[in-house]
Every structure is written in structure tokens, then in C-alpha cells.
Sequence to fold (472 residues):
Amino acid sequence: MAQDTSTANSWKALRRFLVGILFVLLLGLFLLSRIDNPRAERFRMALVDRFFPSFEWALVPVTSMTRMASDFQSYTRVYEQNQELRRELQRMKGWREAALQLEQKNAQLLALNNVKLNARLAFITGEVMTDSGSPFSQSALVNIGRQDGVQDGSAAVDGLGLVGRIAGVGEVTSRILFLSDVSSSVPVIIIPSGRRAIVRGDNSVVPPLDFLDSEVGVQAGSRVMTSGDGGVFPADILIGQVALDPQGHFRVRLAANYENLEFIRVLKVTPREDIDGPGEIIGLTEGVLDE
Amino acid sequence: MSEISVKPRRWFEVLLFALMGFICIGLPILPMGLAANSVGFPDVMFAVFAAWVIRRPMSAPILAIVFFAVLSDALMMRPLGLWALVLFVGMEALRLSNRAFKDIPFVLEWLYVSGLFALMLFMQNLLLFVSFDSVYLLNDVIGHWMRTVASYPVVVLILHWILRIRAFKKDNRPNRLGYVL
Fold:
């Protein structure tokens, strides 16, 4: 009996020790993620890479079930959709004609000017596996990673507009931080007035426009594009349209279809070369510069 | 006799606990509707762990709790280690106040757990604040709290009726001072 209590006591002491150690370890992990964030993010992506595939077998049937359910819902509206699509097709035929003419005209003008255009953007398409599942962050995991050439900070678009940027790359998975996340800020330009602003996420699908340099010429319906300032995003990717909220603040109605994210394109941009010196022109020496 | 039958039962429960841990991580990341603005999932991991620790503290090992908490931190894109720390401390608090839960009505337990969860969310935001990170918006936190509190009875029902994780009835053995309570 006495032996029993003594082993129980030592077990209790050991347990208390373990609790202390675990507490310190967790606190250390949190502090590490605050101090040396890139390293913590690498650790996180390693964990995700290691464990996410083991969840995938569970995810696949559920995904297909939900997709089937939503497809079935859409069958019930198929007639109306058909009518709508016909009308739309009619309109689009007109647009197609106009676009063709414009394209020809554009080609002629370009040929006249001998303009050198930017290299086309290359992209990789991935499938969204899951959203973050947390009420505080707006992000998603996609099934492409470093192996496929995804880089941190690349822009992610769906067919219609900018969705977000890559924040965290694993070997085969990467994480997209949505424009609506509170930690997302994107420099934008508003067309046609040319005003510059920043779209700052606030966990809603209509993020506000911050730091608008002037409200002159900005109105609901103006198009919002990335400006390329800061060098993270390439310029001229559509973000959405300006909208006015009831308080009279400018917000952006995002063009990307956030309600149904299935495939996402990650843009691969070759970085812009910086010109960092005057070049090696003969005669341009120190003395000349001092004059 | 009881010694022999209790041991395998306990290990079985530990395995069940681990399985529930994986399910708790899997549930919120199931792609039920891949939408940016969809309503967040309640913190089932907290609900399951809290209900379990209250009912069978012996079969909810702290190492497992810490492992699942860190893993879910990583998978759900939360600051690494933050919610794990808070959850760990909360579960230890529940374990220490284990005796308070003997033979109390469920409503009281529910109130206690909701209070603890509110305190934990507050601690989480406080930690974020003192580490100069951006804190979570109050509206989000309150919505998350309400959803989780609402899911707690469901979790307890599942544990009680399906997994048969129930509080031990008051035993008639004398305690270490020799009293029969």
C-alpha cells in the first residue's frame, strides 16, 4: 500500500514536470512563429505536406458528394439557364464581332509602331483542396507546390479576377491568402480615373478601398486593377468594381467568384529587371560626375 | 478482476480519443462549400476534448492533446502554437477542476465550459496583442464562441450515446482520508 502511494506520488511529480515542459515548448513554438516567421511557416508547410495527403482519402468522397448535390440543384433550373444562355450567346456574338475588328485594328497599329510587348504571363492551374476552416483567416490550400514552380507571393486568379496571393509553399501543396483576409493589402489603380488606392481585406467579400489619393472621378462601377506597385503583383490584373456602402465608403466588389472556387491559376512572372547603374560608358568617370 | 478489465478498456479509449482527434481536424477542412465568406466551423476539437476530459480524464493524454492542437494549428493556418498553448492550458484547468464536475447537472457543466471557452478566446487575443500581431475582430470571435457553445451539447450527446464515454458514477470507495463521500 505504501509502495503504491509512493509510485503514485512520483508519477504525479513526473506528470507535473511533463506539463511544465509542454507549456514551455508550446510557448516557445508560438514565440518562434512570431520572431522567425519564415522558419515557422516552413515547419507548418512540412507538417501540411506530411499530414494532408492522409486526409485526402476522406476529402475526395465528400467533395464529389457536395459537387453532385450542387449539380443536382442546378438540374432543376436547367431550362431557365438554357434560355438565359441563349440570350447571352446572342449578345456575345455581337461582342465577338466587335472584338475581332478591334483585334485586327490593334494588330495593324502595333505593326505600325513596332511595339515590343511584355512576355506573356505563364500560369499553372491547380485545384482548391480545402479552405482554411478557421473563422479568422481567409485562405485555401491548393494542390500545386514548389515542384510545379509555385513561388511565394505569386498572384492567384480564377477565370475572372484576382483571388489572392501565395503565402506558404510546400513541395506539393501551397496556401493562397485571399484578398478578403485581414492581413492582405494590395495596391490598386482605379480605371478610368487613374486614382491609386489599397484594397485591404476585412473578412468580407467586399473589402474597403484604403488610402485613396483622391475621390475625384471615382464612382461606383469603376474598374479596379492591380497597379503593380511594390512589385508583388504584376500590373493590370482585374480585381473588381468599385461599390459604395451605405456609409458612403468606397469598397470593391470582387470579380473573382469566391462562392465557388474550384480551379485557380497561379501566375508565373519573370521578375522585372532592375537597371542599377549608368552603364559602362567611356568617359563617365568620377570627375565628370562631380562636376 | 476489475484491474484486468479496466486496463484494456482504458487503452481502447485512448485509441478512440486519437481517432476523434483526427476527425476533429478533418471535419472543419472538409470542403462542404469552398467559399471565402462561408460561416466558419465551430471549434469541435475544443468541444470534444473538453467533454472527454470532464468525463474520462485518464484516457485523454496530454501528449495527444498537444499533438492534435499543434497539427490543427498548422492545417488551419492559425498562428503556430498559439491556440495549442491556450487549449493545452484550458484542458489542464479542466483536469484540475475535475472534482467540481462530479454529479452536477449538464446545464452547469455547459455554462462552465462556455465560460472557459470565452476566457480562452480572450487569452488568445491577449497573446496576439502582446506579441504585436493583429488581433481577431470581436464579431468573428463572438460568432465563433456562439457556434462552438451551441455545438457542445451535440458533441456530448455523441460521446454519451454513441461512443459511451460517460462520467463514472459516484463510487462508494473511501477517499484517501477514509471518508465515504
Remarks:
- The two ends of chain B are 24 Å apart (CA to CA).
- Residues 53 and 73 of chain B are 20 Å apart (CA to CA).
